[in-house]
Amino acid sequence: MQRPLLASTASFAAASIAVGVVVLALKLSAWWLTGSVALYSDALETVVNIAAAFAAFVAIRFSAKPADANHPFGHHKAEYFSAVLEGVLIVIAAFSILRAAWAGYLDPQPLEQPVAGLAINLVAGIVNGVWCAVLIREGRRRRSPALTADGVHLLTDVLTSAGVVAGLVLALLTGWLILDPILAALVAVNILWQGWRLIRLSIGGLMDEAVAPETLDRIRRVIAANAAGAIEAHDVRTRQSGRRTFIEFHLVVPGTTTVSASHDICDRVEAALRTEIPGAAVTIHVEPEAKAKHHRQGGESIAISV
Q1: pLDDT digit string, tens, across residues 177-235
Q2: What is the dotted CATH code of the domain comprising 213-291?
Q3: Phi, psi (deg, nearest 5) at residue 271
Q4: 6, 56, 110, 139: which could join 147 in a potential S-S bond, CB 3.0 to 4.6 Å?
Q5: Is the pTM of this model over 0.70?
């Protein structure tokens, strides 16, 4: 990936910190005006957003470092550490919210200046909504787990903020003060689930999980369509490392194929794979016909079998 693109990816992460500070100020104002436990839970989640955005910024900058003698495959996995940290922070925040919700449940308090507080929280939710859409779009386009994780987290924040506002409006209309701590507890349960998902996905990346089945199917089709002159390809293996997708497989060619001709086939397949899977690192092991796992039948031309 080109360094200018990496630099702009880091800029998005830095902007997330600034957006998080603005949203936190708005949500703290809403909580201060109302005294709502549910709005407190919403503000606390934004503290996690800021910490996670900072972690993403550091991780993206580190992952942009070129490969070196100690890290010949690059530093791309650094982003997964930030996503794991974000998941852990979410879980910690959730337990903090549950504690406050329990206190509010035991002693529910009336809301002060609810209209102003809810209006401010609604503005904060709109700011978060716009920014989370930008982060998810750019994270996927740039193949950045850290940006995508930050955007997904903000999306849950937007959804929970909307639920909190709707629930507090209902509490005001009905006079059921108990709805405030109940909403806070529901927010905590929701972000607990999101935190677990982030941790699970990030650990999968650190453990070199293969690409998604649909991506693997695309890889197989590209190899089959661009390996003319070879007999077959087998033992396709993949792993994801941040923005990089590593693809390895064995390519069987006829015994009479020259080294130069084999190299041309490999170049053609590699170019096609990099076009289909941006950021792909392709390793091809060329083998003689005797290594084929599927043999010729009659005099028919053999399609590449992957």
Answers
A1: 777 777 777 777 877 776 777 677 666 666 667 888 898 899 999 999 999 889 888 88
A2: 3.30.70.1350
A3: -60, -40
A4: 139
A5: no
